Amino acid sequence: MxxxxxxxxxxxxxxxxxxxxxxLGSVLTFVAVAMVVSALVSALFSEFETALQIGIAAGIxxxxxxxxxxxxxxxxxxxxxxxxxxxxLAWFVFSAFGALPYLLSGxxxxxxxxxxxxxxxxTTTGASILPDPGVLPKGISFWRAMTQWLGxxxxxxxxxxxxxxxxxxxxxxxxAESPGPTPDRLTPRFxxxxxxxxxxxxxxxxLEMVLLAAGDMTSFQAVIHAFxxxxxxxxxxxxxxxxxxxxxxxxxxxxxxxxxxxxFALHYRAWAKPVEYARNxxxxxxxxxxxxxxxxxxxxxxxxxxxxxxxxxxxxxxxSLTTTTGFASADFGAWRPALQIMVVGLMFLGGMAGSxxxxxxxxxxxxxxxxxxxxxxxxxxxxxxLVTNFGKKRVTEPVIEAVQSYFxxxxxxxxxxxxxxxxxxxxxxxxxxxxxxTSAVAASIGNIGPGLGEVGPTGNYASLPxxxxxxxxxxxxVGRLEIFPVLVLVTKDLWRR
Length: 497
What we know:
Elements: H1 3-44, H2 48-70, H3 80-98, H4 100-105, H5 111-122, H6 138-153, H7 155-162, H8 170-177, H9 190-213, H10 219-230, H11 247-260, H12 264-272, H13 275-279, H14 281-301, H15 307-322, H16 337-346, H17 362-380, E1 389-390, E2 393-394, H18 397-428, H19 434-445, H20 466-480, H21 484-487, H22 492-495
Antiparallel strand pairs: 1-2
């Protein structure tokens, strides 16, 4: 190979690395700002030593972001390839820097535990190694909730909304980070779309804060739970999650969890025309699945509870699982086996595309069902020209193939992750049972948080070996980015012309 040919083959990789470095340097600024706010919260509660430690973490993050940006030329545009690579790497970087407040304050001294908690935060998974989050300093508790609120709508999408310098590739970055098949555009320029999505996200969060503060939560608890509800994250301030709060508080959170599972682009359109909800086929399917699941679970709980308690527990925990929020008002790990099987099934669903929920998304569930039915009809009518519709819209073959491919990769990761977790446990002799291993992997990929067994609503992930925590941390990130932005990092096509 000639020198010129070698240089040409290296150009794509060099350009990709520069683009990744510039965007990461820019967006790390927001992580640093969020740390500063958390430090101020600590100072407000007279936790001055913790405030200083969080401030040091903010300084390290800000300096790293500035230096990275300072020595890399701003890209003129961001390609699809660069967008996927940037987002795929960014979330690993966020998890590393986001662990600094835990480590420097000593709230979570082990690096494996700190990375696990941070990855769980930014990915809005809600899995935790903390037996009682109530003992955390207020600033650390605020930072813990802030990671979920930022991760819910997307840190990079926030950067696109605020920083004009990322506007040139905003659509490519959002395409890789936004939950769902494709990001919904409200305006021709995606930077304006990002601003509107974050605005509606902030408004609904503020509304929930007010309603929660009107109940039995303190103002601080209301802020924390509003952050982690709207992000479908599930981090709270109590060891018992939401079980210790009043029925009013539980119903308020149930309602906002349901709203968080709805596309925020749909929320924006419905702001002026509420009829948009009824017109949206994915919203109708999402609502139908939720209502049917609540009715079935409530029926299963009636044998042991009054009608009111059964309906409230069924509604709260079913919506929490369906939207992958991870809050719990009851120990669903102690429910009868038939209901526990349903719990595992709900872990795979998720909310609407464009929401903050994890899982497979209602749109994909609907398309898979319609495509499977069309295949059955094709067996009976082999010469018929069959069209797959979702609502009143035709679903094209490329979209169907993409959904089927996603489902295949999702299930492959679930099975592989379960095998690896069981393998790790078997070699480290920790005695992890199959129910715990299976539900832990499903809860990590689906960004749910609590699973069954040892990692159920009344348990945590602290007893898992460090290697298992690293594995689950990676699965959380893969699940939050919907698999492809991370998997594409290991493909040869990404790094060559």
